[in-house]
Amino acid sequence: MKKIGILSSGGDCSGMNATIRSAVRTALRMNMEIVGFRKGYLGLMKGDCFTLDSKVVSGILHRGGTFLQSARSPEFRTPEGQQKALAMLKELGVEGLVVLGGDGSLSGALALHRLGFPVIGIPCSIDNDIPFTDMALGVDTALNNIIYAVDCIKDTASSHARAFVIEVMGRNSGYLASVSAIATGAEFALVPEREFDLAEICQQLRARYEEGRDNAIIILAEGVGNGQTIADSIKDAIGFETRVTVLGHYQRGGAPTVFDRLLGSRFGKKAVELLISGQQGLMVGLSCNAILATPLADVIKGEKRPQDEVLRLAEVLGI
Ligand code: F6P
């Protein structure tokens, strides 16, 4: 193998640049050429790529997002789109591909693998819903962003004796909501994985208000529903004046934490080493602090990553 490619696809996350930098440096050290495709599978289908050398990837480690840019591509989900990408890879002389992304992007990687093309996936999604990795890339930075925001909101909530419903991302996963609630001492985490009784929550908030407590924080996973709807349905029952904050895409950006810089660097190196050693159709993942590889087919057919331990911890802590 003399030439490989790399792309970032789907929702971006902090740590992607560290991953790309590490993959490039590993490839160069092994005397391989490496090209970066712009905007994920979109760029791949068009052949929109450029050579990555040591200089191109210097000065990007500490930046959030992905300097290769990212996109979601409905065309690549079709067999025609996948054939187009395959033909482009052959035309460019690219013999292996590293794909950074979440479950949709990893399904795309699996499709290329099934067409006989060597691919290694890297799990990147703030939702932390990808099986076979303890943590996906970007989760730790997103959590730190959330925690900073919640701490700020708590200050103003206390000054005004208010309850805040804070909506966080995660699609159908409640990981960000559960962990940020644990780490900020929030009163409630409303997550898709656990049923809750809004009337019971209102009673507990009312009791808190009557005890003279000066704030209440409810962290809502976006997969449960809309923050404003929840706030409207509790505001007349709880005593506290109620406000809503939707953290939105703020969560996905910013300088990556040390954890994500290191995880990305480890993932990038391992992915290239696997490709060069002739292994393919795998996803790298973190397991008990080791970097392991799992067949993409198992990742894609696997159940969503279980949140049981975190949910139990939240319950024990009264969240
Ligand atoms: O999957 C990552 C994620 O950030 C989800 O948490 C969120 O629902 C979604 O992507 C937002 O997607 P977009 O950036 O396309 O609005």
Automatic annotation (TrEMBL):
Keywords: Allosteric enzyme, ATP-binding, Cytoplasm, Glycolysis, Kinase, Magnesium, Metal-binding, Nucleotide-binding, Transferase. This is ATP-dependent 6-phosphofructokinase. It comes from Geomobilimonas luticola. It is an enzyme of class 2 (transferase). Coiled coil: none annotated. Its main location: cytoplasm. Substrate binds at S125, I126, D127, R162, M169, G170, R171, E222, R243, H249, Y250, Q251, R252. InterPro entries: ATP_PFK, ATP_PFK_prok-type, PFKA_ATP_prok, Phosphofructokinase_CS, Phosphofructokinase_dom, PKF_sf.
